[in-house]
Amino acid sequence: MVDKETFKNMKKQTQNKKRLVLVGMLFFNIGILFYLKYWRVLIGSKTLLLPLGISYYTLQAIGYFMDVYNSKIERETNFARFFLFISFFPQLIMGPINRYGIQGKQLKEEHEFDFENIKHGVMLILFGAMKKYVVANLLVTRISSILDKNYEGIPGCVILFAILMYSLYQYADFSGGIDMFLGVAELFGIKMQPNFKQPYFSVSIANFWQRWHISLGQWMRDYVFYPLALTEGMTKLGKWCTNHFGKHFGRVLPACIANIVVFMLVGVWHGPELHFFVWGLYNGLLIALSDILKPAFKKLNGFLHINENAKWFHIFRIVRTFILVNIGWYFDRIADVRQSFIYLKDTFVNFGNPLLLASKEYLRAFLGPISNFESHIILVFIGAVIIFVVSLLKENKIDVYTAIQKKNIAFRWGAYYVLLIIIILSFTFSSGDAGFMYAQY
């Protein structure tokens, strides 16, 4: 039996050891990521090969150590099980960033053969492959032919056309890959964390990032946002601002600063190039300004007698968010920051005649030979319509897979074969597998 003072000292020593181990593991993981992903750029070297998906399993490992340190989960004593959690192959290339408290339990359990898992997994793989091969792979070279050549005086309508294609491409490529990997995991009875929830139906930028790359957003929220926003310094700043600028400003300012820091880190997480940092800063500032100006927007809506619950206002918010997101894609996609600002300016002040997009002769100057362009457009259009319809149904709380299973056998197999046939057709026109865009991060 130890006295109270001795117990306190023992507890403090244990906590110090835990903190030391945590700092060591963070330094080890972040150090490897920094060296492989950023150091080569800082020193101008391109000799190091970057392992696919290193950012994903590095964050996953960091999350595990943070959760153990904060006593959210029990420490895994079996290294093979921990290694399986980190290296589970469907998540390895591009996530999602899973949590040990959820996925670790599944990896320990026995999984009996379940035909329902097989059916649902195969359907997910087919749907994801349709997004990737029918939509993303047929768009990627067309986008590059416009945005990667720094044309002088290119009309804004052509730039906007390329950005909208990129918006569709990026979603189809990333969410398509995630669907395929979720489907593969489900074949083994493992349900990984979903990463998308109809992001283009979002009503604000903050809502968009709650629906796009969900696992990264939740990781940043738990391990960066809250620890930063709840620090003693932020609490004091909030109280000071409350006394000098009002309750609302004092309440939201710490969160605004934390959001800006989070999105700058998200930008850098994508890569060490400046345009990613600008893209992250753009999103962070938008969310911060939205929070700060929320009372002003509320008063403006009241002054204009706008019913915030009206259907038309909901649609307006979706369209407004879509526009703001696509402005951000200029900085995300165009590597030269100066060029991205030029293209953004030309989109508004040098829009040109959108009817030029219907001219094969004009498009040939940007897209090159377009003998297969009509076939590409038809397939991409079919794929985009399927994606939109499925997203719309899911947004209205309709489980598409369950709804299909309730139909007769002809309808069910028709749905399977439509996906399979257009995927096969896309291979005919594709210039080759472009790989997964988010695997490079």
Residues in helices, as a percent range = over 70%
| Percent of residues in beta strands | under 5%
Alpha plus pi helix count: 18
Radius of gyration, taken over Cα atoms and rounded to an integer in Å: 24 Å
Give the SSE string. HHHHHHHHHHHHHHHHHH
Overall shape: it is globular
Span from first to last CA? 53 Å
Mean pLDDT: 88
For the sheet with most strands, the description reads: none
Unreliable stretches covering 5 or more consecutive residues: none
Tell how many strands the DSSP assignment holds.
Answer: 0
Structural class: mainly alpha
Concise overview:
With 441 residues, this protein is mostly helical.
What does this 3D model show about the protein?
With 441 residues, this protein is mostly helical. 73% of the residues lie in helices and 0% in strands. The chain has 18 helices and no strands. It has helices spanning 4-42, 54-69, 79-87, 100-108, 115-147, 156-187, 205-211, 214-229, 232-245, 247-270, 274-292, 294-303, 311-333, 337-349, 360-367, 373-395, 400-405, 409-429. The chain is globular, with a radius of gyration of 24 Å. 30% of the residues are buried. The model has no long low-confidence stretch (mean pLDDT 88).
How would the blueprint of this fold be written?
Blueprint lengths: L3 H39 L11 H16 L9 H9 L12 H9 L6 H33 L8 H32 L17 H7 L2 H16 L2 H14 L1 H24 L3 H19 L1 H10 L7 H23 L3 H13 L10 H8 L5 H23 L4 H6 L3 H21 L12
Helix pairs in contact: 1-2, 3-4, 5-6, 5-16, 5-18, 6-13, 6-14, 8-10, 9-10, 10-11, 11-13, 13-14, 16-18
